[in-house]
Design a protein that fits this description.
Elements: H1 7-31, H2 43-81, H3 83-99, H4 107-131, H5 135-148
Helix pairs in contact: 1-5, 2-3, 2-5, 3-4, 4-5
Length: about 150
C-alpha cells in the first residue's frame, strides 16, 4: 500500500464508482415500493443541499472513513495479523457503524445494512490493495455516498 495509485486503477474504479450506485438507484426506482416526493425547492436551496451533500457525504465521510478504516486500522491489522483479518475486521466494524444511521430499524433492516456495509467495506479494502492507495477507494466511497445519500 505504499505506491501511488496507478492510472489503470483510476480508469477502473471511477466508472465503477458511478455505475454501482446508479444500478442500485435504478433498482429502487423500478422495483421498490414507495412514492417519490417533490418538495418544490428553489434553485438556491437545491444548490445549498448539493454543496452540503458534496462536503458532508462525499468528502468528509468518504475520505474520512477510508482514511480511518483502510489507511489506519487495516494497515495496523495487516502488519500484525495478515491481509485476511486486515480486510475483514475493519469491514465488519464499518458495517456495524452504519447501523447507527438507521431510523426505526427492524431486525431485517439491521441485518441487511450490516451485510451490505460489511460487503462494501470489503470492496473498499480490495480496491485499496489492488490500487496500492486509499484514494481510489475514497473516491469510490465519496461518489457512492453522493449518489445514494446526497
Amino acid at each position: 500500500m505504499k505506491k501511488p495509485a496507478s492510472p489503470r486503477a483510476w480508469a477502473v474504479w471511477i466508472p465503477v464508482a458511478v455505475i454501482l450506485p446508479a444500478l442500485v438507484s435504478l433498482y429502487f426506482i423500478f422495483f421498490a415500493d414507495g412514492v417519490f416526493a417533490n418538495r418544490h425547492l428553489d434553485s438556491a436551496t437545491i444548490k445549498y443541499i448539493f454543496a452540503c451533500a458534496i462536503f458532508s457525504a462525499c468528502l468528509a465521510a468518504g475520505f474520512g472513513e477510508e482514511l480511518l478504516f483502510r489507511g489506519f486500522v487495516m494497515r495496523i491489522l495487516e502488519v500484525r495479523f495478515g491481509k485476511i483479518p486486515a480486510v475483514l475486521v475493519p469491514s465488519i466494524i464499518f458495517g456495524m457503524l452504519h447501523i447507527t444511521n438507521m431510523q426505526n430499524p427492524n431486525l431485517l433492516d439491521i441485518l441487511l445494512l450490516f451485510v451490505a456495509g460489511t460487503s462494501v467495506g470489503i470492496t473498499f479494502s480490495l480496491i485499496c490493495y489492488q490500487s496500492g492507495s486509499i484514494f481510489p477507494g475514497a473516491v469510490v466511497h465519496g461518489i457512492w455516498n453522493l449518489i445514494i445519500i446526497g
